[in-house]
Amino acid sequence: MSEVTYIDAIHAALDKAMADDPGVFLYGQDIGTFGGAFKATKGLVGKYPGRVLDAPISEDAMAGVAIGAAIEGARPVLEMQFADFSSVAFNQIVNQAATHYYRTGVPVPLTVRLPSGGTPGSGPFHSQSMESIYAHYPGLVVVTPATVADAYSMLLESIELDDPVVFCEHKFLYRWLKSENFDGDALPIGKARITRPGKHATVVAYSAMVHEAVRAAEILHAEGGWEIEVVDLRSVKPLDTDTVVASVARTGRLLVVGEAFPWGGVTAEVVSRVSADGFHLLDAPPVRLNARDTPIPYHPKLWSSHRPTPESIVHELLKLLNY
């Protein structure tokens, strides 16, 4: 196989899921002949007639139709054009899909694909990271793949699950992140991965921030010989506390990095869990680093200083290392 991208992995996973299970269908705005806003479904409408369906411009209606189909035994994959717009379907996702099995014993095997995170020039309505909001609600699985292999294997696993899954795929990774193939160790949802081993400090990250954390670790190694361990959460609900605490036991220091807004959220949850379960392992107070607590700016230079960067991660790590 020639070099493949993150968006190629998503396309291939959708193709395989539909080939393997006639109950899988795709639903979203302009995903048919047009192939979707990011071309994740390009060419699939002809390959699977009647199973790649264009939706009205109503996220609320889209989610309602998909939930109803899932209750009746289908496995819909719902594409939101941007994660931000899923807030229009919030009631359907958190009050209907998330609670249905608890209320009735009937599962809702729905996968909601959210093109998440920021890209230069996208601004406040096309750049948000919604994973923390959905992870708050019982009944939803929330995944955040950071690699080409995980984008492929985790989407297939998400579609196979009987639980509703919010699949947060990062737009910045779509065509920037490349690999030789889709193969990887294919860890299950709920299991974190040690992306880079180290001994001086732990950085916990997910989605695109994993790559920023690795760059920061490489800078610190080149400049000072520091060995920074990077943990990729992979999914934020469920969250693999055991792997995180085990890493902190090796390093004694913790920085948690996320692209979402700072108030509450995944980074706060990781810090809380480590403080509760591994306080005795810490040699310094745990730290979290998020985007700034403002709407996301349009200007590329403002955007690049709004989200965590390798430089800002290095800055926080040096303070942590020198505590």
UniProtKB/TrEMBL annotation:
Superkingdom of origin: Bacteria
Keywords: Oxidoreductase, Thiamine pyrophosphate
Residues of the Transketolase-like pyrimidine-binding domain: 4-176
SMART domains documented for this protein: Transket_pyr (SM00861)
SUPFAM superfamilies reported in the protein's UniProt record: Thiamin diphosphate-binding fold (THDP-binding) (SSF52518), TK C-terminal domain-like (SSF52922)
Cofactor(s) the record lists: thiamine diphosphate
InterPro entries: THDP-binding, Transketo_C/PFOR_II, Transketolase-like_Pyr-bd, Transketolase_C
Pfam families: Transket_pyr, Transketolase_C
GO-annotated molecular function: oxidoreductase activity
Protein name as annotated: Alpha-ketoacid dehydrogenase subunit beta
Taxonomic lineage from the root: Bacteria, Pseudomonadati, Verrucomicrobiota, Verrucomicrobiia, Verrucomicrobiales
